């Protein structure tokens, strides 16, 4: 019995903290968004906006047809569809006489795709001309593509819908977002938002029929107290639907008070300004009635910015948010004495009725942790973090020597069950972020994020950027079951010396060992069987390379410097 428990403890420690091996990746230049869920048919969608004469990815080139020239070339936009192996399967491209851009995309369980396109000039879609909005205005088009990629319908909304989110339930489409002004009109329905100032933003939620795009109902928040300051109000962040088609949204409240239906929510602070906000959560029934709305209390005049939202199979609600100080969650205080300017990543849970269950945050006084995307997986919730230094989460110390991405797995009771690290070699903390979880299981996962420099991830996996590099790049990485049948190891073989001049040795080598040497572009510069423990690199230029060692069972990648 003692041996049994010892083995369980060893297994727990072994899985609790380690660097997870990445098997494959894709970098998508100029991508502004990657759909945050791997769809039921394993498709991955990305939106790209480009103001260059053309856009090329894999073997496909898309031409900018905006009709504008020179330095004033307009932005064209495209939706890219990849399979689970990152191979481009299809794309949709629209170009008008000016600039336009897709802002969100969603695929339903029947492989229909819904997207929202913002236009500033006239555009023709499926042989139908959509006239330009009035000067200085932006209008929105909701587009449905059926399962074979053909356009089913297009719905024009003469409003600029900001930061929209799309979700589907049966034959219903839910769209949430924000707008500026004192009212919002869709079709013949107008709802009144704030009556404080025309530049304040409000959060809206609309339900449409998926067959023809007709509006079913429209709701809005109403900022009730605020100053005449631009960009304040209530800013939508995310939308999710529960198993019964009820909608939950999160928003950041920048003003002292807001109303959802007849429910008032206050931002308890004496410093409600444009850079200070609190997370607001609101739940609507499928019929559009407000079930409840609430916000925690920000302590010590600090902030709590909402990041992401997910709902599990029984309706429990999980929210990620970043704080700069203490937060009181309806009677439960987290870091109540913190008044520094450090960042603290918060994850909290409400049940379906809105009752608070628990909250977890890093408790080291110096902060240095931001939380991003979260995903419910069976009875757990998985969270992505960006850590600048060592962290304490759920009384567990996570030692970090370099800026790292943390993938944390929490049980339904809030216990940190396990975590994994992904460590880029670039010391600049702003060069690499993992922000979304597309898929997660115990055997592997698919993550997305953004990077702005060539990096080697986890000391072994090269992720070079395309040239030129002076634009936004989104990436998707895979680990585990999705790429390799060999077991990935990190310390089975050692290379020495490192750095090396003309040759290096492999400690623990064996007769069946194969090796490949990659440069930072991913090109193989040398490969062979290991005849003895020595590998000659005298013909390679000075620089950084990745050595891949493999036998019939194991594979390991190690970074080496040639000098």
From TrEMBL:
Keywords of this entry: Signal
Keyword Cell membrane: no
Secretion system C-terminal sorting domain ranges (all copies): 495-559
Domain of life: Bacteria
Any Pfam family matching the protein: Por_Secre_tail
Keyword Ribosomal protein: no
Signal sequence interval, chain numbering: 1-20
Protein name as annotated: T9SS C-terminal target domain-containing protein
Natural source organism: Paenimyroides viscosum
